[in-house]
Amino acid sequence: MAFLMTERLNWSAPDELEFDARVISAAPREGITEIVLDGTAFHPESGGQPCDLGLLDAARVVHVRDDEGRVVHLVEGAAPPEGAVVRGKVDAARRLDHSCQHTAQHIVSAVALRDFGAATVGFHLGEEASTVDLEPALDGKDALLALEDAANREAFVDRPVISRVVDGNDRPRCRRDAAVREGEPLRVVEIEGLDVTACCGTHLARTSQVGLIRLSRTEIVRGATRVELRAGLRTLALLRRLEDLTVSLSASTGSGPWELPAWVEAARAETRRLAAEAASLRKEVAGYEAAALLSRSRICAGGRVVAEIVPPRPPVALRELASRVVARPGTVALLGAVWEDRAVVAFARSAELSLHMGDVMRSILPRIRGKGGGRPDMAQGGGEDARGLAAAIESALRLVSESSHV
Ligand SMILES: [Zn+2]
Q: Which of 155, 169, 211, 387 could hold 232 in an S-S bridge, CB 3.0 to 4.6 Å?
């Protein structure tokens, strides 16, 4: 249905970002209007490249899609009516950035095929970085650096980038072909001396305009190497971010930027040493603490019971303390603490006693709006209501005192 196709002004005159065109149809749909023009310079989303944005008169173009050859502009605001002649303006900075990334992708794809026999099986032009999927996968970091070097050399050579629309029957040999229906034109993009490929996207006029190409952070996706690609101002933005990061890390550590790895290694070693020291001190303190708790224990139902709220600590530390207390034969520990605004409880008994600490735990959990449970000799719980902690420990003590199974 060739008569329905929109004339692609961005193919015949890629540098013309302002144009006049007639509105063929204007269909309002949920707050936006879908507009088809007789010709457009707007690139619709396709082939991994996002669409152009801009204006049709005063109406904002928020998306552009290709509907089987018809370019559909989605606009917000006062949309022009059918038959009107409108002035279209493509957002130049966005177009330049996308053309830069896309042209860099052609260079990288051509070099990957030429030097590594790797075909481009995927491309996505992202907001901050783009990805190119190369198959078979590249062999390690050295191969990625070699590809990056070669791609930059090709960019510096300053080769012309020429696009033309050819008849479907008169197509040149392309790196990547496109499915074109009979009678439909095929757009071919050539980087002189390097690459010929079928492509509908937007490109720069010469390879040197891509500036510096940076390839980074590879991962393997379905057997292909996914390379992150940046070119032009995006490479500069990455460099700035990395430099800002280094400068702020240097300032906060007092270490020169190149000494940062050694600083981090030393800090990690110190952290390991301090953690070991803290663990040993915790053990020692728990011994004194258990002894102090036992000295305040009360005798009931033929056993010794320690029922107390101890200073704040995480559940694991409370459980350790309870274990240490009940290491003394004939002892029950009913311990509570507040940790990060929550109540934590650990109930334990000496091995030779028969009371089920899980049962005691379950009976007091409603008082702290908590959850928990455990084995007959050790139970642990936690709850949102720290204000109910004292009553919970009291209630557990009462249960244990009344029990004949201590
Ligand atoms: Zn392209």
A: 211
pLDDT digits (tens, 9 = 90+) for 43-99: 999 878 899 999 999 999 999 999 988 999 999 988 899 999 999 999 999 999 999
Query: How close is the Cα of 198 to the center of ligand 1, in Å?
Result: 7
Decide if 130 contacts 101 (C-beta within 8 A). Answer: yes
Distance 245 CA to ligand 1 centre (A): 34
pTM for this model (two decimals): 0.74
Distant-in-sequence, close-in-space partners of 187: CB < 8 Å, separation ≥ 6: 11, 163, 164, 165, 166, 198, 199, 200
Strands (E), 296-353: 298-300, 303-309, 331-339, 342-349
Q: Which of 306, 307, 308, 324 is nearest to 316 (CA)?
A: 324
Q: Which two tokens stand for residue 65?
A: 């899609």
Cα(123) to centroid(ligand 1), Å: 10
What is the Cα–Cα distance from 254 to 233, expressed in whole angstroms?
Answer: 31
Structure tokens at 227: 């390379």
Expressed in angstroms and rounded, the spacing between residue 201 Cα and the centre of ligand 1 is 5
Angle (CA) 70-75-79 rounded to 5° is: 100
Q: How far is the CA of 295 from the centre of ligand 1 (A)?
A: 81
Query: Exposure pattern of 135-145 as b/e (b: 16+ CB <10 Å)?
Result: bebbeeeebbe
How far apart (Å, rounded) are the C-alpha atoms in residues 293 and 82? Answer: 87
9-50: pLDDT as tens digits: 878 777 889 999 999 999 998 889 999 999 999 999 987 889
Domains and CATH numbers, the chain: 2-90 (2.40.30.130), 95-239 (3.30.980.10), 285-402 (3.10.310.40)
Question: Of 23, 3, 19, whose CA–CA distance to 11 is shortest?
Answer: 19
Q: Which residues surround ligand 1, an ion (CB under 5 A)?
A: 102, 199, 201
| Intervals of the chain under pLDDT 70 | 1-4, 177-183, 301, 404-406
Q: What is the 187 CA–ligand 1 centroid distance (Å)?
A: 10
pLDDT value, residue 218:
82
Q: How far does residue 256's CA lie from ligand 1's centre (Å)?
A: 43
Residues 376 and 207: their CA atoms lie apart, in Å, by 75
- Compute the distance from residue 196 Cα to the ligand 1 centre, in Å: 10
Q: What is the three-class DSSP state of 253?
A: helix
